[in-house]
Design a protein that fits this description.
heterodimer; A: mainly alpha; 16 helices; 70% helix; 1% strand; B: alpha+beta; Immunoglobulin-like; 5-stranded antiparallel sheet; 36% strand
């Protein structure tokens, strides 16, 4: 049920988002910000019509979603809360999005990083420019932040009254942050902390947790014009680097991939990466069985697959990021680039 | 006053069990202040009891397992490894601190690694262990129970134990305790019990009783080394020469109960001083008594060597089955899940009785209590009392206590499933290990006896009242222990810490690197460069060849 709710929420969200993108495109064309020969890069309403349906189907039919539904994991509930948060943000209702974000943060600590993209999107929607000195910027930010914090405090106090003690805070959030349980999962942490020297365990726990939260500010600076893409990248980073990742988290950010299907021509390694991901997904249960039941493989085999899967995910995200930035560059500078002497030019990152 | 007794009983399978009991009574009232006159009570234990506010202490070090099914009900069973349970005085404020200090001090006294007892293997049972001495109230928060199944018992533990005896191992029954024969056995258990008792019949004052017991089972016959006949010399390679001058009572009991109630199959020599009949554990038994203090014993020879000969070979087909026995095993396959199955047998033909089962499972086997099933005779059996305390990772083990009614002539199967956790690499035992031990579970029951028993006087025969206590004439108390279990946990590769750190940090660095690139660099049109060093070198070579440059 929650999966269907998530899919519906994503569908509505992407529909709205498409409208926004189209409006923005029109505005920029009228303002003549685009170079003259980028006609083929602009998204047409025709191809954008089917994207919401594709997103919903992508989420529902993803084998990862099906697996986490069969396993009856609470990841589905988490995903639906985040999807409702995205819907509320795109619709523009600050109050609802704050409430849903508080709910998502209450469940697992990491959606806190989604505060930044939501804030950026709402600011954009209100046409408040993002200047550090502008008063309206800070006013709106404070409003939104206070809404979010208030709802978070309300939810935590509710839990306190249910339980009559503050014990749940170390049990829930302390558990997420300090990673005491080492059951193997598809992430990177479990083997790392199983083999860690006692002396350094606190240091590395802190490093890994900071790693999740650390990309927010640089991404916010770079992607302040495109908060929804920022949200996508942030979701992906959370699901790769959280302390106990599951395939349900992977399913959530993969649902957004059809939204950026227009980037397809700029993706560099998509074939290899999709092969790597599919292959790893098949090898996961095989090597798990070999380690635990057959006894003929080592824990290293399963760990290697974990590594490869995560590398694949990381490269997928950075590939999409690269493609997105490249398309932006082409939009503003024209599709056919010429050098000073008139020959075909290459684009490099410098 | 010291009383020492030795009970020799042949077991149905042909082995011989020898149980020594040394009892010292100390008439001192610790409540009134520091005591300095110890007399026969060992000073180490006396100061321990006074300083830490201990009301009762029971420590047992065991090697081997008592096979209840084949050997009959044990006089005093102890689980494999080390077991320590202590009742503290109500005046003790911080029981956990006192428990920690106590286990450390005992580990020093007995040269056993009891200092491994910490919060991860200590539990607070609510119903299974009641005080055996005088007690005012029983607040179970003053009780602590811990078992270390991996402990090994050896000569190093026997020597300090012997040193606590008033005569040491120089006179009396303790001369038989020689290590090289005692550890050549299939079961060896030494225990120390301290408890407060009434000083006399009117019970106006309290004195302390220290009981040291040692049970050993020699298996010459079943291991094929000898015949069924045995003698003290054959078992202990010593004979009794004289008595301990500090002993007020020193006796040897030999179990000569006839099995078939028809004819006497056994012959004991030299002839006993007296013959004592008692009803023990529901059975009528006859004992040949040798009183070492009677002057007639050592008249003829300086030494006493009790010998037993079988007049005719015994039918091995008839082996009496004890009324209550149990076994436990691990089921399942693979390193992820498993289940603990306990089978409890009640072979009494018509009486049903309840039994309390106490299970302590370490935290790394995560029990799923919703999978607990108790099946008797094909139907589900609901326990009338369950106390479950879940484990906390690295802090507390699981505790499960249940009161189960066993119907007559039935087998009860209790199963509970668990999941195995992956531990940090430093928490695994060193490489040549058997696996992880799960301590024995404790079954306590009042078993109804077939024949009525009468109360016995404590002073006359302390052995029987402490080894075979009976609260009323119709049932006797039995505490059984099941086998300890061995489980394997999934292991990480221990040779890999550096590699793992490198690889994981590489993956994180891949992410960091690509994101850093994309975030801090912008797209530029590439300028044609003059060419790198290689290009220039190639151009130079081309010029020499006369070919146009690149």
């Amino acid at each position: 049920i929650t999966d269907v709710l998530t899919a519906v929420a994503l569908y509505l969200a992407i529909q709205d988002f498409n409208k926004v993108v189209f409006k923005k495109q029109k505005l920029l064309i009228e303002l003549d910000k685009y170079a003259p020969d980028v006609a083929e890069l602009i998204q047409t309403p025709m191809e954008m019509h089917y994207i919401p349906l594709k997103v919903a189907l992508f989420y529902l039919l993803n084998p990862y979603t099906v697996m986490s539904c069969v396993a009856k994991s609470t990841c589905a509930i988490n995903n639906s809360v985040i999807a409702f948060f995205i819907l509320a943000t795109i619709k523009g209702s600050a109050f609802l999005s704050a409430v849903f974000l508080a709910l998502a943060t209450y469940q697992s600590l990491y959606p806190l990083t989604l505060f930044a993209p939501a804030l950026l999107y709402l600011l954009q929607r209100q046409f408040i420019p993002i200047k550090l000195k502008s008063k309206s910027f800070w006013l709106y930010t404070m409003q939104y932040a206070s809404l979010y914090l208030c709802s978070l405090v309300v939810i935590i106090c509710l839990s306190f009254f249910l339980l009559n003690s503050w014990d749940f805070i170390p049990s829930v959030y302390g558990f997420i942050l300090s990673v005491p349980d080492l059951t193997p999962n598809i992430g990177l942490f479990w083997y790392f902390f199983a083999e860690m020297f006692e002396h350094f365990s606190l240091f590395f726990v802190c490093v890994f947790q900071i790693n999740v939260f650390f990309y927010t500010i640089p991404l916010a600076i770079k992607l302040k014009e495109h908060p929804v893409f920022f949200m996508f990248v942030q979701l992906a980073i959370i699901s790769i680097f959280k302390s106990y990742p599951t395939v349900g988290d992977v399913a959530l950010y993969m649902a957004f991939l059809p939204v950026w299907s227009h980037l397809y021509r700029f993706l560099r390694n998509i074939f290899i990466l999709s092969c790597v991901l599919i292959f790893c997904s098949f090898l996961f249960p095989v090597l798990w069985h070999l380690w635990i039941y057959a006894g003929s493989a080592n824990s290293n085999f399963y760990y290697a697959i974990t590594l490869t899967f995560n590398v694949g995910q990381i490269l997928l995200i950075s590939d999409y990021f690269y493609a997105f930035l490249r398309r932006e560059y082409y939009l503003t500078h024209g599709l056919h680039l010429t050098r000073q002497d008139g020959t075909e030019a290459m684009l490099v990152l410098k | 006053a010291l009383r020492e007794e030795l009970l020799l009983s042949p077991l149905p399978t042909g082995d011989v069990a020898a149980t020594f009991q040394f009892r010292t009574r100390w008439d001192a009232d610790l409540q009134r202040g520091a005591v300095s006159h110890y007399r026969l009570f060992p000073k180490a234990l006396g100061r321990l009891v006074a300083a830490l506010g201990v009301r009762e202490l029971h420590l047992a070090l065991t090697q081997g397992f008592w096979r209840t099914r084949y050997w009959g009900q044990p006089p005093l069973q102890a689980p494999a490894g080390a077991e320590l349970w202590v009742w503290f005085q109500p005046t003790v404020t911080d029981v956990d601190k006192a428990w920690k200090e106590l286990s450390n001090i005992l580990s020093g006294i007995f040269c056993a690694s009891l200092n491994f007892i910490d919060s991860t293997n200590t539990v607070i049972p609510t119903a299974s262990f009641k005080p055996l001495g005088l007690a005012n109230g029983t607040d179970h928060h003053l009780l602590r129970y811990a078992v270390l199944p991996r402990e090994v018992v050896c000569t190093e533990n026997l020597t300090p134990w012997k040193k606590l005896l008033p005569c040491g191992s120089k006179a009396g029954l303790a001369v038989l305790l020689k290590a090289e024969r005692l550890f050549h056995s299939s079961y060896h258990s030494q225990a120390v019990h301290i408890r407060p008792i009434c000083r006399d019949a009117s019970c106006l004052a309290v004195s302390w009783e220290l009981r040291q017991t040692l049970t050993v089972v020699f298996d010459f016959f079943s291991s094929g080394q000898g015949k069924k006949d045995w003698s003290l010399f054959k078992m202990f390679s010593r004979t009794l020469t004289d008595t301990c001058p500090l002993a007020s009572q020193s006796k040897v009991y030999v179990d000569i109960s006839p099995k078939n109630k028809e004819k006497e199959l056994l012959e004991v020599s030299p002839p006993p001083t007296s013959v004592h009949e008692a009803i023990v554990q529901g059975d009528k038994k006859t004992y040949a008594v040798y009183d070492l203090l009677s002057p007639s014993l050592f008249n003829t020879s300086r030494s006493l060597n009790v010998q037993l000969k079988w007049k005719r070979p015994q039918d091995s087909s008839e082996m009496p089955i004890p009324t209550l026995h149990a076994q436990r095993y691990v089921g399942g396959y693979g390193l992820q899940t498993g289940q603990i199955c306990t089978l409890i047998y009640n072979t009494h033909p018509y009486r049903a009785f309840p039994v309390i089962l106490l299970e302590t499972v370490p935290w790394y086997l995560r029990l799923y209590v919703h999978t607990l099933t108790i099946i008797t005779k094909g139907k589900e059996n609901k326990p009338s009392y369950i106390h479950y305390q879940p484990a906390q990772d690295r802090r507390r083990p699981h505790l499960l206590e249940m009161l189960i009614q066993l119907p007559a002539n039935s087998v009860t199967k209790i199963t509970i499933q668990f999941e195995r956790a992956l531990l940090k690499w430093t928490e695994y035992p060193p490489d040549p290990n058997h696996g992880f031990y799960v301590g024995s579970s404790v079954l306590s029951a009042l078993v109804p006896s077939v024949t009525a028993m009468k109360d016995m006087d404590v002073e006359q025969s302390p052995l029987f009242t402490s080894l075979f206590p009976s609260s009323d004439g119709s049932s006797y108390f039995v505490r059984l222990y099941t086998e300890p279990l061995l489980v394997n946990l999934p292991t990480p590769d221990f040779s890999m810490p550096y590699n793992v750190i490198c690889l994981t940090c590489t993956v994180v660095a891949v992410c960091y690197g690509s994101f850093y690139n994309l975030l801090t660099r912008t797209f530029h049109v590439e300028e044609p460069s003059r060419g790198g060093l290689a290009k220039r070198l190639a151009n130079v070579i081309r010029k020499f060849r006369g070919v146009p440059p690149l």
